Please model this.
Amino acid sequence: MATVGELRFSPAVRRIALAAGLGVGTTGVLAGVLLLGPLAASILLAVVFALVWPLAAVIRHVADEAPYKSSATVAATAAAAVLCLPGMVRLLAWGALGLATAMIVATLFVLIDLVVPERRPKPSRQQRKLKRLTEAQLVEDETLIASLQCPLSIEELCGVWSETATQLAHGAGARDRQAVAEVRRICLDEFERRNPDGFNRWLEAGAPANPSSYLLTNPSDN
Model:
C-alpha cells in the first residue's frame, strides 16, 4: 500500500486542487477585508509585503537553486495569507453560511479554471538561444557521422579514431561523448568489415589509441 509521500496525483487533479485552494483563499481575504476594514487591511498587506519582499530576495540570491521565480510574488502571497487568516476565522464564526460561501467560491474558481485553457510558459531568451546552439551542434554532429558512412579509407578512419581518443582524453562533455561514441561505433564496424584479421589483432593487443599499425598491413583493404 502506497504511503502519503509516495502518492502521485495527475496534473488535472493538482490543477483542480490549486484552483479550489485559490478560491478558498480569496474568500478568506475578502472576509478579512470585511472584518478589518479596507484601510486596516490595506495597511496590513503593505506592511507584510514590505517585510517579506527583501527577505525573499535575499534567500533567492544566496540559494544555489532559486525555490521560486519572483520575490514580489512570494511577498504578495505571504501578505494575502496573513490577511486570509482572520478572514477564515470570521468564516468559521459564521458557521454553515461561511463554509457554504467558501465552497461556492472554490467551485466557481474550479469551473473557471476548467473553462480557461492552460497557457504554457514561453521560453526565455536564454532558453531559446541554448536551443538554437544545441540544434546547430546536433546538425554538425550528424554531418560528421554521415561523412563517416561514405567510403573513407581505413587510413582516414584510423585518423578519426585517434582524434576521438584524444578528445575523450581531454574530457569531453556528455553531449560530445554521445557523438564520439557513435563515431567510434561506425569506425569499429568499418574496421571489422574491411580488415577482420587486423581488427582482431588490434583487439587482442588491447585496442591502442592508434590502430593504423594493425589495420594498414594490407593496402588493398583501404
Observations:
- Residues 125-221 form one domain.
- Residues 47 and 79 are 8 Å apart (CA to CA).
